[in-house]
Amino acid sequence: MKVTLLGCGGSGGVPLLGGEDGRGAWGACDPREARNRRTRSSIVVQGPDDQTILVDAGPDLRAQLLDHGIGRVDAVLLTHAHADHVMGLDELRIMNRIMGKALPVFGTARTLADVTGRFEYAFRPPTPGFFRPALEPVTVEAGQVVRLAGLDVRLFSQDHKVMETLGLRIGGFGYSTDVVEMPEPAFEALAGVRDWVVGCFQRAPHPVHAHVEKAVDWARRLRPARTVLTHMGPDLDWSWMRESLPPGIEPGHDGMVLESPLGDA
């Protein structure tokens, strides 16, 4: 199973808009380090039959798919409905043309109610030519194991303070973005995970996102072989993280590829 991090930035990306010259505010991140340039957080998961699950569809989606050579999407899973995770849904109209059919979009009832309100036109019955997206909502909930694009995906609930987000487990791989507290069932779902991608926004505590110390504590409890940080803000310089994080924990970067086993679920 192949997992590609399309983006690993927070809601504003890195750099943020602005800066003294208008070319971006980098915070603590060194602009000379290419891995500090981060688009909004999203991944694709590809199984042995090359079917592809897109997890979240943020505003950078078109460029992400082109940059990382993803020419097909078979299913979409939305972790939650914040703008940096859903505002690229309109870009999927081209995937409709490629596939020749509507795309299933999986999410909780709350998430789907939100996106069908924002993108009402995309959830109507398909029309010839797919001049607008054709998306089919499929309601799921934490605790389920659902079949997406040929893969069994275990879903679990995470606390983002302002709402529930979905985490996922596929074989030896786990993904937990936009989380500030991990409920006990989430740890149970991730038990024995080999590769874990987890959101970590900054060094100091944050009201709705995990910070470095908390993400490290979670990783020490779960003990995956590899923990990769994502959803990182401009406070987290790539070189600083490489030098400061404990062994087995590393910063992600846009375009990072992980190969993870389908067993060990």
Automatic annotation (TrEMBL):
Pfam family, one: Lactamase_B_2
InterPro entries the record matches: Metallo-B-lactamas, RibonucZ/Hydroxyglut_hydro
GO molecular function terms noted in the UniProt entry: hydrolase activity
Record carries keyword Hydrolase: yes
Keywords: Hydrolase
Domain of life, per lineage: Bacteria
SUPFAM superfamilies: Metallo-hydrolase/oxidoreductase
Domain Metallo-beta-lactamase, residue spans: 39-231
SMART domains given in the database record: Lactamase_B (SM00849)
PANTHER family registered for this protein in UniProt: HYDROLASE C777.06C-RELATED, HYDROLASE C777.06C-RELATED-RELATED
Name of the protein this chain belongs to: MBL fold metallo-hydrolase
